[in-house]
Amino acid sequence: MPVFITVTDAKQHDVKIARRLNLPLVSDSILCVDRAYIDYKWLYTLNKSSVFFVTRAKKNINCKITGQHEVKKKKGILFDYIIKLSGYNQSKYYPGDLRLVGYYDTNTKKQYVFLTNNFVLSAYTIAQVYKTRWEIEIFFKWIKQNLKIKSFLGTSKNAVLTQIWVAMCYYLLLTYIKYQTKYSYSLTEFAIMLKETVFETISLIDLLSCTHYTCYRAREPDLQLALL
Prior knowledge:
There is one protein chain. The protein has helices at residues 14-20, 40-48, 88-93, 123-131, 134-146, 157-181, 187-196, 204-208, 210-227, and strands spanning 30-32, 52-56, 63-68, 77-85, 98-105, 110-116. The chain is an alpha+beta fold. Helix 2 links the parallel strand 1 (30-32) and strand 2 (52-56). It is globular and about 65 Å long.
């Protein structure tokens, strides 16, 4: 569930925006980002603030191994090293220890290398933390498919931003209601139900109840027949 959002044009680099933002992160938070956010100076700032990060290591990372942890290959862990950056600028911007975790995903048949400053969690947990970042991609896919922001009603900056913010507010309201009411069906089903009953005088609690949902599904063929 999004906590904050910032909207920029495509010319802005992700990590530059992250550096400017006053991120609402408390100590012991875990920040999971992709390789576009690797800026060792910024990552070291997070480390000094007691914020953990998990990211994919760049292929050209210049480092030396100073230690290693026990590897559980049954869980797909290939290696678990303690490292220090050895490149001039890299070691200057991040002088502390880092952890390099190699992981083989049996589902994708791919090998991944993760970089983190967390030495407490197991290597497998570090891999699973990064895996949860895929929820961000699912979020973008969902809003594009369900909230009509592939095409815009206006072309001015104000019109585009207004449409995006309205979509975000709608998504947050749906997600919050679903969370608070422990609604068992998917967010997409919920969105369809609201769209189909927007002109009906129906209590939201009744709409979310299983009984009313059954009635709603039962009426669908009649609605289609009426349209035909």
